[in-house]
């Protein structure tokens, strides 16, 4: 059912304005992200020190955001500048099968899918590459991917004037954004849980250190994950609500989603790099990474270490257990 409170032309114009603002903020974070990925703070990284997977994801998100902005400009130009007799006019906003509208949808869905995949990857790393831990998240991600494929297919094959609230599109759109919200909440909680548990155990047994303050640093890691996850999940939830209601404000919210996904990804890299560099400066000034001993006191004796590796900016947890005469080590990387 068409939205009578917010005409499609006004919604598209407002969406393009919001998209430009968010893109500007995103570009600012990209500069800091490149610095974190290619520099240790004291020197440029060597080729074998680069995290190519993170660089690739950052590049994909940058290209997606840039393409979305360029195509958005074309949509506005065609709708408000090109006359109807030349194939333009505001009536073109209702033709979702036009190549420009389809590309914008592809970019939005791809950006969201990549962001969700990176969240699952980080969780998989923290749980020592355990597929069991992220199995449910992977299933949900696959379900969302299937919904996105159907969305793009139906959009591209419509030959009549219609909006995203069309009866064929609506169920898949609602399902995709509902899955995205639930996936982000669950996976973020899984990420935070082991860190919170270690922090609570340290506080419970009264951990003290004269050289560092690991509980505080762990809380900082938790804060980084929660804040970035909350930013991204809030936008996904707003998109879900507007999609469900059939409001044209969906175009405004979804235009911001592309940039917000990139910003949330960049912020984790930026803030973990900053935390690592600050720690290095305050201790030894080394640039190869830091190791934070977290002694969880009480039987059996444990020595849990959070590693922030400059090569792989992100979340890396190293857990070593000293048991009687021997020790075993589980690496989360």
UniProtKB/TrEMBL annotation:
<feature type="transmembrane region" description="Helical">
    <location>
        <begin position="224"/>
        <end position="243"/>
    </location>
</feature>
<feature type="transmembrane region" description="Helical">
    <location>
        <begin position="96"/>
        <end position="119"/>
    </location>
</feature>
<feature type="transmembrane region" description="Helical">
    <location>
        <begin position="131"/>
        <end position="154"/>
    </location>
</feature>
<keyword id="KW-1133">Transmembrane helix</keyword>
<keyword id="KW-0812">Transmembrane</keyword>
<feature type="transmembrane region" description="Helical">
    <location>
        <begin position="174"/>
        <end position="196"/>
    </location>
</feature>
<feature type="transmembrane region" description="Helical">
    <location>
        <begin position="20"/>
        <end position="38"/>
    </location>
</feature>
<feature type="transmembrane region" description="Helical">
    <location>
        <begin position="50"/>
        <end position="76"/>
    </location>
</feature>
<keyword id="KW-0472">Membrane</keyword>
<feature type="transmembrane region" description="Helical">
    <location>
        <begin position="249"/>
        <end position="270"/>
    </location>
</feature>
<protein>
    <recommendedName>
        <fullName>G-protein coupled receptors family 1 profile domain-containing protein</fullName>
    </recommendedName>
</protein>
